[in-house]
Design a protein that fits this description.
The chain has about 350 residues and is α/β, with parallel strands linked by helices. It is built from 16 helices and eight strands. The two termini are about 20 Å apart.
């Protein structure tokens, strides 16, 4: 099935094999010396362990060539899963703080994205994330995002520990981004409650909410999200592994969907949570019994709420509908009409 992913972290997409190659290139000591050992180390144990693995992957990215390698590897995986477009979060502030040159990284990433499009016929844009708990890098992140707007950067994002660090200190950054025509997204409603979602909408002018699953704790907010058509970038396996929800059957995804909130399916940090975007669709189907029309509808919802220009979005939607039709006739004996299309029509 053709897919779009709106919430995946580029650094968090690093496979153990890629980390091993980078570590050998830069003589970095790792907890394991072979790919099998790193795969075991990657397996989620706790939030602290997750952060340790994530930071190790980020610190292994030293030269522009490393970022080029990571990006091409990510885009090859996109092609394998038939993800035709993705908007990946990227914490440029971390790399600037580690002494990397922002302009060199921008050029390396742009070259990798262009090469990946030629090789794999998929498209990628970045969401440059301000990290709430590292406010000193916010100005630099905004500046870098604006320097790559359009051909590389799709949006300014906000991530970090929302339960401790609020959104309000970054109001001016997001207001300036909006004036400059840069899209805005924000992590909220994951480790903090509905109030963080409301703050992301008001302070960050967020056009999409990363996660947002705790919105269900406030029925009025759910109604507002549905009325305004604000999409949630939901990452089911991540929510389970990080303890946001007990298990997948108790995940609020279906309640939000049935309430009319635009929901999209995403993988967050796939190697760390032992998942892929394809796996996320499979797991949701198994948990809630979704049919082909529902699954195709989630995919189409993600495309429609992407930050692609309207003409490119329309052309890609036509390709999605062709593929849905072909797959439906081949596998089910009849075309698949995505649920989102039926609702819109």
């Amino acid at each position: 099935m053709p897919k779009v992913e709106l919430h995946v972290h580029l650094e968090g997409s690093m496979r153990p094999a890629t980390l091993l190659a980078l570590a050998r290139r830069h003589n970095i000591e790792l907890p394991a010396r072979d790919e099998a050992g790193l795969q075991r180390w990657f397996r989620f144990r706790s939030f602290e362990h997750f952060v340790e693995v994530y930071l190790t992957c980020s610190q292994a990215l030293v030269d522009p060539e490393d970022f080029h390698l990571l990006t091409l590897d990510f885009m090859a995986e996109m092609a394998r899963q038939n993800v035709l477009y993705a908007e990946a979060h990227f914490t440029i502030g971390t790399h600037l703080a580690n002494g990397r040159d922002g302009e060199e990284l921008r050029q390396a990433l742009a070259e990798a994205v262009a090469e990946g499009e030629r090789q794999h016929y998929v498209r990628l844009r970045l969401v440059a994330d301000i990290v709430r708990n590292v406010p000193q890098m916010a100005d630099h992140t905004l500046e870098w995002a604006l320097s790559g707007k359009g051909d590389l950067v799709a949006a300014l994002g906000l991530s970090g520990f929302e339960a401790v660090f609020p959104s309000h200190p970054f109001r001016e950054h997001f207001e300036y981004a909006a004036r400059q025509g840069l899209h805005r997204v924000a992590h909220a409603g994951e480790h903090a409650g509905p109030g963080s979602v409301r703050a992301a909408l008001e302070v960050c002018q967020a056009e999409r909410i990363g996660h947002g699953v705790r919105s269900v704790e406030d029925p009025a907010l759910v109604v507002e999200l549905a009325r305004r058509g604000v999409p949630l970038e939901i990452c089911p396996s991540s929510n389970v592994r990080l303890g946001v929800v007990k298990d997948l059957p108790s995940h609020p995804f279906d309640r939000l969907y049935r309430s009319g909130v635009p929901v999209t399916v995403n993988s967050d940090d796939p190697p760390f949570f032992d998942t892929t975007l394809t796996d996320e669709y499979r797991r949701l189907q198994q948990a809630f019994g979704y049919g082909p029309a529902d699954l195709a509808g989630f995919s189409l919802t993600a495309l429609r709420h992407s930050f692609l220009p309207d003409d490119e979005k329309a052309a890609l939607e036509e390709e999605f509908l062709r593929q849905f039709d072909r797959l439906g006739r081949k596998l089910l004996g009849e075309p698949v009409l995505p649920a989102a299309t039926a609702a819109a029509g």
